[in-house]
Task: structure prediction
Amino acid sequence: MTLTLGAGPLAGKDEARTNYAMEGPEHRLLWEDYPRRVRALVGGHTVLESIRGKLLFETGIQPVYYLPIEDLDSDSLEESGHTTHCPFKGDASYRHLRVGGHTYENAVWHYPDPLPAAGWLDGYCSLYTDAVDLWLHEDEPVRGHLRDPYHRVDVLESSRQVTVKAGGQTIAESDRPKMLFETGLPARPYLLRADVLPGILSPSGKTTSCPYKGEATYWNVAVGDDVLENAAWSYEAPLTESLKVGCHLCFDGEGVEVSVT
Result:
């Protein structure tokens, strides 16, 4: 399981059925080694490089990457007067990131005097994911946020019957879906294009990135005179864990009903 989603021990929800109780504060922090070589680039200039990173897992929050302050390019940073307060970590100070014509205000934060319960934050900082052009794990680009090592994707062959309706009309049926199971998320059936009514799909132009599946391409669905925007998506060039759903379609959204029996 992932630690901060679903019934994970840091999810902040009492969803799991267990024969034990976790003692300690309701809001928990976990500081863990993240020994991958991580780099962040702006306009081809490396502003961050470290093999000494850490992941901070915090109740109900996606894990955050921290690294020693000295592993940041100090020439790209400028002091900021901005501060914030966290009741669990302390007072955070910020710095702007400036590289050439690129400016991202308050991009970097650190806790110069962290609370005793989070004292290990001393000397570490973090950088907003969208403050740079490119993140690399070793030499592989990262799509979206950095990967959580406890997050998993499994794609399994299935003979379950899947029916997709839109506007009360059946637009897809399959007894050969690929079932995608992803930590903390609902199971999703992915269907071959051959199992979808012809002529109802058109590209919407929308894309999103997932660090576990890759870049999603979205599709509008036309049913009669109605068009359901972004009602389907596909991964045309999925990442390794999700290769089996390549070029398959998944449906969801307002006006769409998906049944799996």
Remarks:
- The chain has two domains: 29-141, 153-260.
- DSSP finds no helices and 21 strands in the chain.
